[in-house]
Amino acid sequence: MRELAGTLSAALNRVVDAVVVILLAALVLDVWIGVLDRYIFHWQFNWPEIMARYLMIWVALLAISCGIARRDHIGLTILIDRFPVTLRRAILIGCDLLALALFVWTFIYGLQFAISGASRFALIFGMSMAPAFAAVPTAAALASVQLLLCLVRDAGQYTVQDQAAEV
Fold first, then answer.
1. Total domains in the fold of the chain
2. Do the domain assignments include residue 167?
């Protein structure tokens, strides 16, 4: 079961990583178009700044599940490392369950948020705000699935890497 969860987590992470890279490339291109417009060509585009904002929100929120898959998020273990292994595992599993509850709650309320965006319109694009607002429930759902898979995969046996020692 743990191996299957690890395989599914890695596969999901590869897909989300690819989407994040594509959106980040689009964000960089969009910002460059805005810079060229403002300082060189004076095309008077009104959309690059707004598009960059929405792309950045999607990239940042989708990257949460990538961090969960790699266990790359910040962890303060100064206190946890002092506990015996069994208690440490229980604490780490408890933290994962609390985070899972937060992401599920965010997903539920994020759906309402995205649905409310359907009736709001971006004046510059003339489009519904639902696609922009959908970043919240989408990211929360991905984070929930990824956290559940990682919880099964790791079962509280992960450790926070000392990144300073890796350099």
1. 1
2. no
